[in-house]
Amino acid sequence: MSSPSAVESFPAHTSAASQIFTTVLSQGPLTRLEVARRAGLSAAAVTKAVRPLIEAGYLVEDVDEDARPALGRPANLVRVDGGRALFIGVKVTGDTIIGVLTDLCCRILVARHIPLPARGPEAVLGTAAELVRELLIEADGLGVRVAGLGMAVSGDVDRAEGVVRYSPFLEWRDVPLAELATMTTGLPVTVDNDVRALTVAEQWFGAGVGLSGFAVVTVGAGIGCGLVVHGRVVAGAHGVAGEIGHVTVDPAGPRCHCGNRGCVEAIASDDAIVRQVRAATGVQVADAVEAAGLAHDGVAGAREIYARAGDAIGRGIATVANLLGPERVIISGEGLAAYDLFADHIRDAFATAAFGSAARCDVQTRPLPFDEWARGAAATAIQSFIRSDANQRGRGGGQQP
Hints:
InterPro entries: ATPase_NBD, ROK, ROK_cs, WH-like_DNA-bd_sf, WH_DNA-bd_sf. The protein is 39% helix and 21% strand. It is α/β, with parallel strands linked by helices.
């Protein structure tokens, strides 16, 4: 793979400038006065920060004819030029690598899926390099450079160090993925937990835009949770936060791969549901699709398994609501294909276990295909690119507004 040209530095040299750009990126187009109000900064600070961003082509101005004041010229709207830079996002699953090429506004331009021949780091890096090569060719055709690569992996991921500490699905421990991927692709690389990456995308470009606190709960191969508290994605002191999949809801429940009993994930993940449906029905279903089919057909025992899963998920979400009081909880993941089987049980368990006003949390579902998870990885690359701490570029960082 030919190495990309030297990566241009983003012209935002202070945290205030990064904050201003992020505000316009996620909520724009906006007037300068509105940017100042939403960012909590002075109009002078906004003017100072916007000028070099406009000169470098990252922001552009448009006249807002609808906002014309009583006297004088119409106000100017500031917006991000999405075509100014491109980014690649890669989501690694147990059997496939999904890659997307996005613009600076994280709009997907191209998506690719490549089967994964094996789960070891060497096989994953080789397949990812092939996919990145294809997307770089697409970027060359657009005449715009790729400014960064984001990679999303399930499990315990230390974004600040770019290391996958433990990924149970890939069976990885202490893999320096950011360093290896940078050597392989020549791009600055940000590595993050897949659910946390999805949360970044939802915060900046999705259902979490403008919210100070929300959570993303994913249901499927595992039960994941990404958290935003006071406008910041929570990474945890050691890279782990929001692991509601390992909240114990039934101390006498099934053994979890983490070693404990009765975790939400041990009851409600796809594999857990398949095992329980096999035991309850005697039918050797191959996967979650077949398990859900039995439940939809009314096979004795199958629907009860989904009811129990819904109860576990609802209690896990209530734990998040009780501890952090988010404005919204967004439920997503491939497990939503069977959502009708446990939706009522999630709502009932949440209402029962949520304390007081925590029950007012807006719980909503948002089905997102795996391309969106790869988009989340691209969002982390965009985030690393525009942050003011240049020392973190290419390795990622911890919490980020």
